[in-house]
Amino acid sequence: MVAALAGCGTQDVVPEREAADALARGEEVYLDHCVGCHGVAGDGRGPAATRLLTKPRDFRQGTFKFHSTSPGALPTDEDLIRVTTLGIPYTSMQPYADLPLRDRAAVVQYVKTFSSRWRSSGARVSLPPPPEPADARTRQGVEKGRAAYGRAMCKQCHGVAGDAKGVLAHALIDDWGDHTNPADFTLGMFKSGPRRADAVRTIMTGLNGTAMASFADVLDEGEAWYLVAYLRSFARPIETREHLAALLLARDYPDAFARHVGEPTPEAARALALRGSDIDAEKQCMKCHSVGSMQARRSNDWHVAHFADPRSVVPLSRMPAFPSLLDENGTPNADGLATIAYIQATALPNPRNVDSE
């Protein structure tokens, strides 16, 4: 069984004879870890959903954004296990690499029971990525990527500066009727994974259910690698975890951040995190939580949901709600922003140590 799971090929990774056991175990894992956001019925309407900025997936439709298959096609089991393992950065979909592979594979099988599309899908085959050109990671490669960015009209959504402020950015609606934000490349936002190959895969296959279409027919052979090199060149210099935490908060809650903090400068970020440290001490959070123990697996909106209703995201939580950290609209107030900044600054990866892959 373990060997079969480790292979994670393009077919179902759980042998048919073990399907019943896998589904039973998958339901247990789902109820323990997924129901707070995705809901008991897999409809994306769990108790935490209304407070999350990126809405949880409604599994009933059978549409999955991240896939290695043809545009519009269902993902492979390997694709779903990858998302379950790595999570989706900058969203409340946290990584579950700490779960046994058997459990991750089982919950994938259970998630598939919510949509009838899986029963008639047939074999699902990953598309091979284009070969990486020898000069893709050179200065010349970046310039070729700049040309591809212009020709593919990426600026319409992602902006001329790659800051997610394109002219169409405010009008993007996904298949579930929710507003979606383009990736902000100045923050190094690559939701499909940390590797260049992950971004290439997204460019070639698109994100199902969103405005991010496949560009396989627009770009020349291997040109997606040049485009990724250019996208990575947008990343702004960020020296500290505190500054990264402030930039992410300003992106997620721009009005509240501007009102309570101002601009997300390095100096403001440092002061904000220090204030959060004081609040942490005042509320004696350390009695239950250790500094840096969350390993940056929680997004800002997850923390907001946790402050408002801890059991909406952690069913067995004993933590009381902290409405004093939120305003009347459920948005983090000055103390809420500071608390989240402190939590994130203790756990986010050091921006200076990010892998160049």
Summary keywords:
about 350 residues, Cytochrome Bc1 Complex, Chain D, domain 2
Description:
This protein has 357 residues and is an all-alpha fold. It has three domains: 2-120, Cytochrome Bc1 Complex, Chain D, domain 2 (Orthogonal Bundle); 139-233, Cytochrome Bc1 Complex, Chain D, domain 2 (Orthogonal Bundle), CATH 1.10.760; 241-353, no CATH class. The protein is 41% helix and 0% strand. The protein has 15 helices and no strands. The chain has helices at residues 2-7, 19-33, 35-38, 77-86, 101-111, 139-151, 155-158, 196-205, 223-233, 241-252, 254-260, 266-282, 300-308, 310-313, 334-345. Helix 4 (77-86) crosses helix 5 (101-111). It is globular, with a radius of gyration of 21 Å. The two termini are 32 Å apart. Mean pLDDT is 90; it is low at 1-10.
Concise structural overview:
41% of the residues lie in helices and 0% in strands. It has 357 residues and is mainly alpha-helical.
Number of helices in the DSSP assignment: 15
What is the share of helical residues? 40-55%
Under the CATH scheme, which architecture of the largest domain would be assigned? Orthogonal Bundle
Count of distinct strands: 0
From the alpha-carbon coordinates, what is the Rg to the nearest angstrom?
21 Å
What's the structural blueprint in terms of helices and strands?
Blueprint: H1 2-7, H2 19-33, H3 35-38, H4 77-86, H5 101-111, H6 139-151, H7 155-158, H8 196-205, H9 223-233, H10 241-252, H11 254-260, H12 266-282, H13 300-308, H14 310-313, H15 334-345
